[in-house]
Amino acid sequence: MAEQRRPLVQQIRIGIIGTKAIVDKIMKVIEAFPSFDALPLVYQDDEEAPALAEQIGSEVEVLFLSDPLSQRKVKEFGKVAIPVHHVPVTDAGLYKALFHAGLQGRLDGGISVDTLTETMVVRTLKDLDIPGMQAAVYDGPAYAPKESLIAFHRQQYESGASSVAFTGVESVSQELTRLGIPNEWLLPSDQDIVVSLERALLSTASRRSREAQIVVGMMNIDDFGTQALRRNSEHEVQKLKLDIHRMVLDYVESLDGFLTHLGGDEYLFFTTRGIFERETGGYKTIPLAKDLNKTHGISLSIGMGFGQSASMAGTNARIAMRKAKEVGGNACFIVREDGTLIGPLEMADPVQEVLSFTDAELIKRAEDAGMTSAYLSKLLNQRARSGKYEYKVHELAHLLDITVRSAHRLLQLWTDNGLVEISGIEKVPRGRPRQIFRFVFLE
User: Fold this and answer.
1) Which carries the bigger pLDDT value, residue 384 or residue 169?
2) Is pTM beyond 0.70 here?
3) Can you tell which superkingdom this protein's organism belongs to (predicted)?
4) What is the domain count for the chain?
């Protein structure tokens, strides 16, 4: 069955097909890929995969299957002319499964393993310091029919060679459980999914066409005047400027970009989208910000603009810079050609959860409800840094730098427009209970 997807504009559409458990896992990981607009489809049996692939083949640029067997069936029987990838199971999944089996007391004999190679299994057992364990590894293809895998594990168990089976196919695990054979399902790790999604992204036509797209970056040194006043002489101030310029120049050079100094504490630079994405780890972090903060105690505000033309990219860079300043600096935001906002990227302070994207429709909805761009930016920044969705009135007033009375008025307005709802009540020893407000539109 099809699940709901978030409508975005001008993103790379990717079809996610598989069992519910794997699809849910992929959908969580894909939040770190703002370039993707995911269309998830769940099947009950891998025989359904080819039909589902044909169903959405004309709507997406790439297909992402939950296992090698369903991928092979799509390629053999599905009439799709787009790249098809799958999530591999590696020895990282075996580590977790062995640990869980050990806790259940199941590792009192040999084991049988499918999906993984013998080299992977031997290496894992050696790393876990249990090299003496007997392991029977299925030596057929990774896309073997599930009937063959079930027969393999059953034969190993009934012969006494194995006390527990490890399988990378969910339907095989379910059938082994029905037969009363102890087993563990090898789930792909998040890192396995990330690597596979990166390969899928690189295979799309849109990605290849966007690699050479010119992007515009604006960079501003936060509160440089205060930093200059801390220096003992004009000579030290000039040395600081030279050091900063050298570090900025080195960073832009790493982007194969072009830098121009606008005077004072502002810089303008140009690079290509593909290089910028790779150097930021997929729009996640700005190494220059950490280096400057560690070396000179200085923070940066950076705005990046993408666009179909240089004019649009420059305008979006200015908008992104304004967002970075509105949250108090030490931030980098990206505004893409469709108005989508990405950020904040990790700067001098570690960001626990990177906000993948905020679509233009959400931004417009917030502004129509009376939420200014400055307030929205601060809420987005706080969400990315701490994952915070809920506030009491005095907490919101402190974050937005407004009075408690103004915070009450705004919360009432935003509640009326469906952006906020009351999620609970906090009782206090003295005084009236405090309401807790949840910003549901940020979830």
Assistant:
1) 169
2) no
3) Bacteria
4) 4
